[in-house]
Design a protein that fits this description.
CATH superfamily of chain B: P-loop containing nucleotide triphosphate hydrolases
Structural class of chain B: alpha/beta
Number of helices of chain A: 7
CATH architecture of chain B: 3-Layer(aba) Sandwich
Strand order of the largest sheet of chain B: 6-7-8-3-9-10-11
Largest interface: A-B, 18 and 27 residues
Number of strands of chain A: 2
Radius of gyration of chain A: 29 Å
Largest sheet of chain A: 2 strands, antiparallel
Shape of chain A: elongated
Strand order of the largest sheet of chain A: 1-2
Strand content of chain B: 25-35%
CATH topology of chain B: Rossmann fold
Order of helices and strands of chain A: EEHHHHHHH
Number of strands of chain B: 11
Shape of chain B: globular
Number of helices of chain B: 6
Order of helices and strands of chain B: EEEHEEHEHHHEHEEEE
Oligomer: heterodimer
CATH class of chain B: Alpha Beta
Distance between the termini of chain A: 71 Å
Helix content of chain A: 55-70%
Radius of gyration of chain B: 18 Å
Number of domains of chain A: 3
Chain lengths: 224, 244
């Protein structure tokens, strides 16, 4: 049963009352996080050599965060980071010290391979179904270059439509999830990367069709 | 007949297919002359080489040896680019299965040969509508092939074969998919609209009911032309015409 405000629970033989529940986005870690004062935290947590992970500092209005971190470093000898630096540090921690990038990478790669295979097969089937029409155009004097441009144009149109639908639906999903606990980020780099992926898939799909059409004998038009 | 009067001159044309290691001789020394303005039919049993011969004449298949001059040009020794341009300008095609592009309407289908020849779309479609009117389909210019009957589709195909003013039209079984009456109408149309002084028609057919439309009939068997006849048309419509 989920906890709610007013519930009590026991943390290492110490009673704790829930006075608030933080709304945060879901992370990759599954451990619950308890927010409390430092003095209470010391009583709840078992004794360890280092109890304090970090101190959150709120800069006064007008303070330069970079200058502030420099001063904290100089005066305490501790590491101090601005919000952006801490985000980068966290990102790099997950990238270098966890299996998340590999798992995500494999998912993306699998998606790319499956997408390329399905798109290639679908496009190739389309070409096979219309082989006679391509033969008719060839017989009537259409050059391979023109047919190649026709196939590429079809690939670009199909790719653009698919990319537009995909990006649109993703953006809509993100918009609908804006007040939920799901973390959603859609940076321009992702648009660029997925666009390049879709382009590669389209080129691959078009290429296998192009080879078939270029090798096609126009005499096929007279075969029953 | 002098060479200048000839639309097609085939001399000792040989074509052998290699079907999985087995050699099949489709054309075995074919000799055939077709005059300008003539309607020549190629007849014969299945596998006798009719389709191969019409493909060689249309410039879409290269023979292995022999010479086939079409409108005074030796297509075998032509560069690929020149061959494409020659076909685009001089050859019209009519197929048994019509082979219209299913997503284009009648006018767009008919305008395809003009687009291949570099004519602008608006001009091509304007001419296509005029030719469709000529073949009696002026009221169906926006119809898709799926919305047309077999006879209407074949008339669209004839309009497509005519629009760029080719000097040779090759037809493969143009009436086989049509009933008798529609087939007769299609042949009448071909003879009236397509055939004139400097335009030649070569028609491959099995359909004896349309033999009467031919100027001459070349009978093929086993890769040879076995005889070329003029035709005598019986006055009785129910009788098949006689070859003389």
């Amino acid at each position: 049963m989920p906890l709610k405000v007013g519930d009590s629970l026991e943390l290492n033989d110490h009673r704790a009352i829930i006075v608030g529940i933080a709304k945060v986005t879901r992370t990759f870690q599954s451990q619950p996080v308890v927010y409390t004062t430092y003095s209470r935290a010391k009583s709840y947590a078992p004794r360890e050599r280092k109890l304090l992970s970090f101190v959150l500092v709120k800069a006064k209005q007008g303070q330069n965060p970079a200058e502030l971190t420099r001063r904290i470093r100089a005066n305490t000898g501790l590491a101090a980071y601005t919000q952006a630096e801490f985000m980068t540090l966290t990102y790099e921690y997950f990238m270098h010290n966890t299996g998340i990038p590999i798992n995500f990478g494999i998912s993306v790669l699998l998606g790319f391979i499956v997408g390329a295979a399905i798109a290639g097969q679908t496009f190739y089937n389309f070409t096979l179904e219309n082989l006679r029409q391509f033969g008719v155009l060839k017989a009537m004097g259409t050059s391979n270059w023109t047919l190649l441009r026709m196939i590429l144009l079809q690939a670009v149109l199909v790719g653009s439509t698919g990319y537009g639908l995909g990006v649109g639906l993703t953006a809509l999903f993100g918009y609908l999830m804006r007040y939920s606990i799901l973390a959603f980020k859609f940076p321009w780099q992702l648009l660029l990367f997925s666009g390049a992926g879709v382009s590669l898939i389209c080129v691959f799909a078009a290429l296998i069709s192009i080879f078939k059409v270029i090798r096609l004998e126009p005499a096929i038009v007279f075969k029953g | 007949m002098t060479n200048s009067n000839l639309a097609v001159r085939c001399q000792n044309v040989l074509k052998v297919y290699d079907t999985g290691g087995q050699k099949v001789t489709a054309l075995n020394g074919v000799n055939l002359d077709i005059a300008m303005g003539e309607l020549m039919m190629l007849v014969g049993p299945s596998g006798c080489g009719k389709t191969t011969l019409i493909s060689v004449i249309a410039g879409i298949l290269d023979q292995d040896s022999g010479c086939c001059e079409v409108l005074g040009e030796d297509l075998l020794n032509m560069s690929n680019q020149k061959n494409l341009a020659f076909r685009a300008q001089n050859i019209g095609f009519v197929f048994q299965a019509f082979n219209l592009l299913p997503s284009l309407n009648a006018a767009e289908n008919v305008s395809v040969p003009l687009l291949i020849n570099g004519i602008k779309r608006a001009e091509a479609e304007r001419k296509a509508i005029a030719v469709l009117e000529q073949v009696g389909l002026g009221n169906r210019v926006n119809a898709l092939p799926s919305e047309l009957s077999g006879g209407q589709q074949q008339r669209v195909a004839i309009a497509r074969a005519l629009i760029h003013g080719p000097r040779l039209i090759v037809c493969d079984e143009p009436t086989s998919s049509l009933d008798h009456e529609t087939g007769r109408n299609v042949m009448s149309l071909l003879k009236e609209v397509a055939l004139h002084q400097d335009r030649t028609l070569v028609i491959v057919t099995h359909d004896a009911r349309i033999f009467k439309f031919a100027d001459r009939i070349a009978k093929m068997d086993d890769g040879h032309i076995v005889e070329v006849n003029k035709i005598a048309v019986s006055q009785n419509q129910n009788h098949n015409p006689e070859l003389i």
